[in-house]
Amino acid sequence: MNFEQTMTACGLMPKxxxxxGKWRRCxxxxxxxxxxxxYVLYPDGRGYWRNWATDxxxxxxxxxxxxxxxxxxxxxxxxxxxxDRKRRIEAIHAARRFFAxxxxxxxxxxxxxRKGLSSVGCTGLRVYSGKLVVPVYxxxxxxxxxxxxxxxxxRFWPGAPVKAGAYIIQRPKSAVTxxxxxxxxxxxxxxxxxxxxxxxxxxxxxxxxxxxRLRPRGNVILCADxxxxxxxxxxxxxxxxxxxxxxxLIGAGVAYPEGIEGTDWxxxxxxxxxxxxxxxxxxxxANSRYVTMT
Length: 294
Prior knowledge:
By secondary structure, the protein is α+β, with helices and mostly antiparallel strands. It has nine helices and 16 strands. It folds into three domains: 70 residues, no CATH class; 71 residues, no CATH class; 129 residues, Dna Topoisomerase Vi A Subunit, Chain: A, domain 2 (3-Layer(aba) Sandwich).
């Protein structure tokens, strides 16, 4: 079998094959609507491929070798997928039961107090055994939880999905929607801008999925973390890169704190000191963009 026939027998669905040494993603028979497959064919004839859902590693192919494609047990894959789905559902239900047992947050949690934040915007949070409990919502349904202890250690509920889930600090008749990474950052923005609704995505990698799902309209701003220390070390600023990408999906603006030792807007609120809220409000609102797309 040639390279394309071998990949097809292994469940990949490439649109075209080009021997240029570049990795390309493609659909697979087990996930035809996604791009779980990857392949590369080099000019000298060497080929490699992988199905990220079924393969433990990268498979290889050469034109001068007799290629026997491994048999894929798609029934076994479907059984595994169904088992995984049931485990996710069980984890979601467990997270909901845990949240129901937690107590409404009273006063200022030690983690937020250490960040210099007040209890404004905390009505949707709960506390259990001293830990702050933050719900992760898909529309109006909890799909996971994040717990935060007094030292800032964060944990998501084991096995429950987080992708595209968010915690929204809603403000009626808000004039701007701000999307950010973490809870403390979101509260700092909410407490600094009296006209803002804040969407907390929990991490930089979840910004784009949250924006794609919620599609906020009106004045929208992605409030990025400024990972300047990481940029100095690696040459890449993950917080700014991910926020800029998410903003580009809908044409929103981007704002990020500068001139501080910390990385996010909660750090800025604490470091700037007197007049911090007003400065943060001006900077964020100045960079917001009006979004009309649905």
